[in-house]
Structures are given as structure tokens and as C-alpha cells.
């Protein structure tokens, strides 16, 4: 009789000053994949009480020992006033309990703790765009990218502020179990499975003049016509703007250029087709608007570091394994790292 696989264990580490909203995200997302994940919340010390950033204190069931058996550790953000270049000794000791190879995910200011622990030196990472200067001043050896919603660097994932915690948790589900499962989770949470654009679209911008139209309608139209070339002039004409005005408005609204956005959407659609269909690479290239299979291979490799066939094999294997209970750290963390390379969702 085959051994029963235990659920993939996610430990959410609540540090003093934790933000309650983000603390609850893993418990909201991961249990929506039945039988696949076990989510526990723990503290860095044996004192199970944690002061939050709000006007209340919480008591959790687990202490730092939960980190020793975790397959994924999620670090929610904590109060800005507690950010330091070096970790307090209890937090440093808690980090030492995490097994090598464990997947670690930070949300917003959680990246400061990972950087203080030396886990981000020489690696790409992100955090809230408003904290860019502070982060770079404190941790100059981290390759900070403040324009993206999250970065998957294999065993370490970092994400931007607040709602990007949902984005990165959905990405973990997608890496572990495929896009169909992640899409079902997203629908249950009433959120998009994949948000377009990066953090730049949320940086404070001057309010548009009254009556000025945007590019959202044209973006929706473009998504329905990805198999076409869609030159800037055609997009601008659809939006009834000059190409120059359209490009400027598009950048303001999405944080990226029309050309880069189209490539992102085509790669995203191609990934979905690779996971969910048996279409050839050349056919998928035509379906998503890349001129040739070679072009698709180049863009996919640039985005996530793998070939279409490697991506398909990894996600097919991950989805099949995810049909039952997901076992342990190795399957989840390595599947995400192998399939994702270093995707930077922007």
C-alpha cells in the first residue's frame, strides 16, 4: 500500500508589529487547494503573543519550533519603525531553525528581515516601492527591483506591498499545482489570477484631466486579439489617440510600455496553453501572436529561463502530483524553482 503523502507545510512567521491583513493571506489562499497545504502561524519566541501594527495583540498556537518542519516559510510585513539592519537575536535564532532548501516567501517589509538575515545578498528582490531608498541604503548588496509585484528566485520569493501577497501566494499555488488550480483559487478569492503591470502603476500620479480617456478598453481589446501583430499605431487608433499620447498614457496606467506589455501577455497566454493543451509550440506561437516557434522560445526563455518543452514537462508533472496531497518541501519548492527560473512579474 503506497505511503500517504502529508500536506505541504506552510509556516507563517509573525514578527512583532506584524500587519494583520497580510498575516492572514496565506491562510486565505493555500487552504483553498484541498488536502495540499497545511498552514500554521508561529512566533519567533516561545512567548506566543505578538503585538500587531494595529491596536490589538494576537496569540498564536505555535512557537519557532514550527519552522523546523516547514516546507515553505512566509514572512508577512511588520511595522516600519521596527526595521533594522540586523535582526534581533530571537528572530535570528528563529531563522536558524529553517531547514536548508526550504522555500521562503516575504511580503512587503518582510524582505527587510530576509535581507538582514543575509538571505538576499547578491540576489534579485523587491519590496514596497515607497521603501526603495530606505531598503537600498540599508542593504546595498541586494539587487532590488521596485517596479515588479513579486520576484521568484527559486527558493526565495519576495513581493511588494499588501495585495501583492495574494499575487505571490497564487504564484506559489500555480508553481506547485498548475494554472487551472491557481485560477480556481483566484476565482474563489474574487481576485485576478495574474495581475498585469508592476508597482509603477500604483506610484502616486497626477490626477488625469476630467474627460481624458484611458487605455483599459484598448488593453481588453488587445487581449482578445493577441494572435494579431498589434502595432502601436493600431492600438493608438483603437483608443482614438495619437501614438505618442497613447504610449504615455499606457505607461502611466500600467507602469510599462505597450510593447513590453504585449510580450508579457503573450508569454502568459503561451504558458497557459503549454500547461493546459497538447498544441505544438509553433501552433501556440501563432495563437498568442509570436511570429514563429523560435520567437516564442526566445521570449519564454527570457521571461522564465526555460524552454517551452521543459516548462510543459515541469507543470504537467506538478499538476499530476498535485492531484493528490502534495508531499513535503522538495516537490513544491523544487517544482517552483525549476519551472519558474527567476520570473519577475511586472
Quick recap:
43% of the residues lie in helices and 12% in strands. It has 346 residues and is an alpha/beta fold.
Verbal overview:
This protein is an alpha/beta fold and 346 residues long. It is built from 15 helices and eleven strands. The protein has a seven-stranded mixed sheet, with helices on both faces. It has a two-stranded antiparallel sheet with strand order 3-4. A two-stranded parallel ribbon has the order 7-8. Helix 5 (132-138) links the parallel strand 7 (124-125) and strand 8 (143-144). It is globular and about 60 Å long. Residues 205-211 and 322-344 have low confidence and may be disordered.
Descriptors:
alpha/beta, disordered C terminus, two-stranded antiparallel ribbon, seven-stranded mixed β-sheet, 43% helix, globular, 346 residues, single chain
In round numbers, the mean pLDDT is 86
Task: Classify the beta-strand content into a percent band.
Answer: 5-15%
Q: Tell me the overall shape.
A: globular
Helical content band: 40-55%
What's the total helix number?
15
Biggest beta sheet attributes: 7 strands, mixed
Termini separation = 46 Å
Q: Rg, please? A: 21 Å
What is the element string, with H for helices and E for strands?
EHHEEEEHEHEHEEEHHHHHHHHHHE
Low-pLDDT parts are 205-211, 322-344
Q: Helices and strands: which structural class? A: alpha/beta
Tally of strands: 11
Widest β-sheet, arrangement of strands: 2-1-5-6-10-9-11
How are the secondary structure elements laid out?
Elements: E1 8-14, H1 20-23, H2 25-29, E2 37-43, E3 49-51, E4 57-59, E5 72-75, H3 89-96, E6 103-107, H4 110-116, E7 124-125, H5 132-138, E8 143-144, E9 150-152, E10 156-159, H6 164-177, H7 179-189, H8 216-223, H9 232-238, H10 243-254, H11 258-276, H12 281-288, H13 293-304, H14 308-321, H15 328-340, E11 344-345
Parallel strand pairs: 1-2, 1-5, 5-6, 6-10, 7-8
Antiparallel strand pairs: 3-4, 9-10, 9-11
